[in-house]
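Newbie here. two chains, one complex. Structure please?
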Amino acid sequence: MRVRYFAWMKRTVGVPDEEITPPPDVRTVGDLVVWLRNRSAGHAEALAEGAAFGAAVDQRTATFDVAIAGAREVAFFPPFTGG
Amino acid sequence: MSVRVQEADFDVGAELEQLTRGNKRIGGLTVFVGLAREMHVREGLHRERIDALTLEHYPGMTEKALREIEAEACRRWPLEATLIVHRYGRLEAGERIVLVAVGSPHREAAFEACAFLVDWLKTKAPFWKLEETPAGEKWVDAHEGDDVAAARWGKKPL
């Protein structure tokens, strides 16, 4: 599974994307957030509890209770500021 | 019905000409052009001028999100033509960022659908602005007013 980070989260984590293989008990976006926090201090900071960020599963906006089973790509990003 | 995400600038006149050519059912065409504006922000004791910004986006998801927003507008209003062109990359103050154009037999639908598209794309399309100031770069925070503007069209999630 590929995980992607955007805007300031990319800089805080230190990489724009990475290939990961989470254990089977990581079932939802929220589970993945908790699991990713352990990868580095940058991950822990970017994905910290209370940090304002959203997620997408296979390029579709997803809440943290959405399952990630079978997903090819999960992305994390700050609130959108386009337009 | 068309959505484009591109680094290059666009020609508003040429885009509108192409959008409406041959369609005689359009009675009203509304257009929104968003520009990068010069702004001043407080940085510590100083006021800094923002001269440029860089728009980052999520290739793939951006186009999908814009197409879904466009489809939603077409479900809500009787539209003959829609166009969204959104730029990314580095933009200096005064440059065009986004073009939204809506053609309908009647002006009410054209006005409303255009406002809807702009409100929703600000909160539902994955773009992020990075501002350049003399003191350095700064990611723009989401604007609460944008959520309020988007919410007035109802809460139907995409």
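Moderator note: The longest strand of chain A covers residues 73-77. Chain A has a mean pLDDT of 96. Thread marked as resolved.
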